[in-house]
Amino acid sequence: MEQKDLDFFREYLTQELEEIQKKGEHTLEDMSNQNAVYADPADRASHESDQAFTLRLRDRDRKLIKKIREALGRIEDGTFGICEECGEDISISRLKARPVTTLCIECKSKQEEEEQLLKP
Ligand SMILES: [Zn+2]
């Protein structure tokens, strides 16, 4: 991969990471603000299910943050954009659509087919 592409992805992933982290901070603030407000048990119940939703969302964000950090690590060690299955280059257009991917499109679809077969 060319240096300018690496720079592009480093920039992109860094921004993405910052955005998720910023969003996460707001969510935490919202949650602690809301805790004080609900005196009515019914309100509190619906608030608690909101909170569960928020936590699920945070869980997804946490996973994404981990993936982005790993992708940035691969940019640093020079393995970014290389399929971890077959060692071929992952196409730039695929990386642009999904920069955190570690598989080329062929290996990804093979993996999905195998997952389908493993389903009961
Ligand atoms: Zn591959």
From TrEMBL:
It comes from the Bacteria. Residues 41-51 have a biased composition (Basic and acidic residues). Zn(2+) binds at residues 83, 86, 104, 107. Residues 6-75 form the DnaK suppressor protein DksA N-terminal domain. Residues 24-51 are annotated as: Disordered. InterPro entries: DksA_N, DksA_RNA_pol-bd, DnaK_N, Znf_C4-type_bac, Znf_DskA_TraR, Znf_DskA_TraR_CS. Residues 78-112 form the Zinc finger DksA/TraR C4-type domain. Keywords: Coiled coil, Cytoplasm, Metal-binding, Zinc, Zinc-finger. A zinc finger (dksA C4-type) spans 83-107. One of its GO terms (cellular component) is cytoplasm. It is found in: Cytoplasm. GO terms for biological process: regulation of gene expression. Transcription factor that acts by binding directly to the RNA polymerase (RNAP). Required for negative regulation of rRNA expression and positive regulation of several amino acid biosynthesis promoters. Interacts directly with the RNA polymerase. Belongs to the DksA family. NCBIfam families: dksA (TIGR02420). HAMAP family: DksA. This is RNA polymerase-binding transcription factor DksA.
